[in-house]
Amino acid sequence: MCFRFLFSLTYMNHTKGGLVIFTANSHPSSRELGKRIAERLGVELGKVQVYQEANRETRVQIQESVRGKDVFVIQTVSKDVNTTIMEMLIMVYACRTSCARSITGVLPYFPYSKQCKMRKRGSIVSKLIASMMCKAGLTHLITMDLHQKEIQGFFNIPVDNLRASPFLLQYIQEEIPDYRNAVIVAKSPASAKRAQSFAERLRLGIAVIHGEAQDAESDQVDGRHSPPTVKTTGAIHPSMEIPLLIPKEKPPITVVGDVGGRIAIIVDDIIDDVDSFVAAAETLKERGAYKIFVMATHGILSSEAPRFIEESAIDEVVVTNTIPHELQKLQCPKIKTVDISMILSEAIRRIHNGESMSYLFRNIGVDD
After folding, report:
1. I need a surface site. Which of 22, 139, 314, 367 has the fewest CB within 10 A?
2. Least confidently predicted of 107-116, 211-220, 338-347, 348-357
3. Measured distance CA(126)–CA(113) in Å, rounded
4. Whole-number Å distance between alpha carbons of 350 and 345
């Protein structure tokens, strides 16, 4: 069984005229990813100047004609996420005012995707970012493994949510010699569906860790469950009381599934704060797993994450290049990278040529 995308290079180079690819300068890796995509498509990167003025304002100058052309703006999220967003918005608006026929944003990692639910008196920031991008002039969005697939509904333009799982599955098959003796692990019940998808495709068993410390995405922090601070009976009959929801209580940590003498492969969509992954690895070691891998699409790896990984029981962390992490790799040799520029370039080619995108979503179910 092979999950390799069989795209012919000669086929990839045949694109219709009027294609322009721009990259912003939020991070050198953004330009590196853009170069890989442009090379696969047989085109040159468009000429654009993006820089910060002395007062930290972002200025964009398109240095070639885009009138009547299909423009693709590639942007990877750097450590300064807000500057990243502004670069994207201003560049899209600049292309719009320069009369581009269509403007497609290529954001392998969608920023603020974790803030896609209402929490107490907060806001749904993902919806705000989506509205800003549409208002700036974006006509199409290509992204990868959204934290919640429902984020697509925040846009009033087409959104192609590509998957990195074929590349991660291929890495498991080719780089883990004894992967047949592995078990796919969900570090929480919330990621069980993703683990099940990996396990079914690799014909492996599955294990779920339950009872870990409550995370920021639990229902307890949802403002809709917040009880009133003071009992008010002005509008309610004194004999009537609103029943309150019983608070949750986490059970002791339990591993559902056998990991003894096996390779444990923890899968998730994002690895940022690694505390939960480190704790999961320690639990799996205690249960007899002799090697532990972590597979994720987006390697944000903030703060002291590289040091914590290096000092943990985790043997290897595999992420894609949707987010720049060269510095983290220098700090921790356990971090490995899988290139996903191939599927992004094929998506761009198909959109530009007006071809169906269904090939890129073959064998992908609703729960994937």
Report:
1. 367
2. 211-220
3. 6
4. 9
Contact call for residues 71 and 96 (beta carbons, < 8 A): no
Task: Tokens 């654009």: give the residue.
Answer: 48
> What is the average pLDDT value for the chain, to the nearest integer?
87
Number of Cα atoms under 13 Å in the Cβ half of residue 159:
22
| Rounded Cα–Cα distance for residues 181 and 264 (Å) | 9
pTM score:
0.86
Q: Is the CB of residue 324 less than 8 Å from the CB of residue 302? A: no
Nearest residue to 348 via CA among 5, 2, 13, 8: 13
CA–CA dist 131, 165 (Å, integer): 28
Tokens standing for 185? 């692990």
Q: Are 157 and 141 in contact (CB under 8 A)?
A: yes
- Name the token pair of 25: 């300068």
Sign of CA dihedral 349, 43, 169, 313: negative
Candidates 327, 198, 331; CA nearest to 269 is 198
User: What single-letter amino acid sits at 254?
Assistant: T
pLDDT in tens, 36-66: 999 999 999 999 999 889 998 999 999 999 9
